[in-house]
Amino acid sequence: MPRKTLKNFSVSCLQVLNEAGELDTTLCSESQQFTEKTLKSFYESMVLIRAIDEKALNLQRTGRIGTYASIQGQEAIQVGVAAALQPSDWFFPAFRATGLSVLRGTNIKTIYQYWSGDERGSVVPEDINDFPVSIPVGTHIPHAVGAAWAAKYKKDPIAILTTFGDGATSKGDFHEGMNLAGVFKLPLVFVCQNNQWAISVPVSRQTASATIAQKAIAYGFEGLQVDGNDVLGVYTAVKEALEKARRGEGAMLIECLTYRLSDHTTADDASRYRTDEEVSLWKKKDPILRLKTHIENHFSWSATDEKALKEEVDHRIAEAVKAFEDTAPLSPLQMFDSLFENLSPELLRQRDALEKRLKKEDT
């Protein structure tokens, strides 16, 4: 019996703003929304979150915060996703989403608190529909699936979005989450920030697939690759996916192809496993420079505008750092406050012992 073709599949790649900073308005219906105000807002947001990131690296190097995971080179993804999300949507972040969290409303001071090990940095304000940062790779994906299932059950016309790296796509959490989202047609958008390195593991050793986007096919929904250094492409793809989810048309996987310009974290030395030539090549594709070129060529963005933006950003970050460093540390006793509603006898004993020790040290 001859073989029959049951179904043919294809995966597309989207780029709206190319590496030369030129906009292709034929590629997406949303291109007409890219006004001067919108483009400058995207640029200003990318400059802001890179500056927040650079300050975090400086704070870590001077011993003022702990290990930190840089987002350098991935700003276009975070700005594009943040712009596409609505306040009513829910966001489940992995650990490399600092900029996205800030653009969703998290205070910069809170970001620095989190990376300093202060658990108050994990507290999300009541009016922001974000979950706390997930450090374990991929474990937050099933949480996002649960939220999406709840939204569908309640007929709540919102979407859920979760971000993760290429390394997470090798985890069972990812595949279980994708399967559930497909089977139950959940309003969930999976955004993979494929920066091509999971610590020291290149994406070529992560998967034999030509793309990560095509993994969606196995689970019965659409996958799309987008140029992750193109903020307009990311915004377009994510906005369309979120709208589809809110209409009850199911999930989507978006692979944002980008590059991690910095080390995996401040505890890593990426020069041990990748070449300077590779990094230099991707620096030429810097998402911030790409959009800056466009607004300089088409909207008269000047050196004066750039200087004013830098001064504003520097002032905002300086205020956040001061507020962070002026915040009194928590009492060690507060480690017991959020564990259980009622402490067990053993924990009560430990708390009393610590309290006596602290009082003794104060005298």
From TrEMBL:
* SUPFAM superfamilies for the chain: Thiamin diphosphate-binding fold (THDP-binding)
Keywords, ordered alphabetically: Oxidoreductase
Instruction: List all membrane-crossing ranges.
Output: none
Q: What is its EC number?
A: 1.2.4.4
The EC class name is oxidoreductase
> Which Pfam families did the record assign?
E1_dh
- Domain Dehydrogenase E1 component, first and last residues per copy: 44-328
Q: Show the InterPro entries listed in the entry.
A: Alpha-ketoacid_DH_E1_comp, DH_E1, PdhA/BkdA, THDP-binding
- What GO molecular function annotations does the UniProt record carry, in alphabetical order? branched-chain 2-oxo acid dehydrogenase activity
A single BP term in Gene Ontology: branched-chain amino acid catabolic process
Name the UniProt record assigns to this protein: Branched-chain alpha-keto acid dehydrogenase, E1 component, alpha subunit
- Species, as recorded: hydrothermal vent metagenome
